[in-house]
Amino acid sequence: QVQLVESGGGLVQPGGSLRLSCAASGSIFIIKTMGWYRQAPGKPRELVASMHSGGMTNYGDSVKGRFTISRDNAKNTVYLQMNTLKSEDTAVYYCNTEHLVGLKTYNYWGQGTQVTVSS
Questions:
Q1: Residues with Cβ < 8 Å from 57, sequence gap 6 or more?
Q2: What is the pLDDT of residues 58-115, one digit of tens each?
Q3: Which of 39, 71, 112, 117 is deepest in the core (most CB within 10 A)?
Q4: Residue 102: DSSP 8-state
Q5: Distance CA 9, CA 76 (A)
Q6: Pseudo-torsion of CA 108, 99, 23, 45, nearest 10°?
Q7: What is the mean pLDDT of residues 47-66?
Q8: C-alpha–C-alpha distance, residues 105 and 112, integer Å
């Protein structure tokens, strides 16, 4: 099993910044991809950003140019730097990791951290 512990959410004013962290522990094996998804009330969960172990990144269109994903492979930790936050960024943010164990791939989710952008 893998445990994901998220931190860094909270309340911020529009235009502000937050940094989310997610640390993986347990039966790590090989982490292929680490990323962040979010879900606002009444909306489906959507990709925010992801990063492959080789460094390739993928961003949701609505956050390109404002959010930056990074990861520390030695610490099995992924970060999400969120700048110029907007009210529409308000959501529960979930960490997601994809692990390779032999020929099988396993996905894990964090418990979620609330991000609220409001004046």
A1: 49, 50, 51, 69
A2: 999 999 999 999 999 999 999 999 999 999 999 999 999 999 888 899 999 999 999 9
A3: 71
A4: T
A5: 19
A6: -40
A7: 96
A8: 22
DSSP 26-89: ES--EEEEEEEEEE-TTS--EEEEEEETTS-EEE-GGGTTTEEEEEEGGGTEEEEEE-S--GGG
Residue corresponding to tokens 């991000």: 115
> How many C-beta neighbours within 10 Å does residue 41 have?
7
- pLDDT of 100-113, one tens digit each? 888 899 999 999 99
- Burial class from Cβ neighbours inside 10 Å (0-12, 13-18, 19+) for residue 75 reads exposed
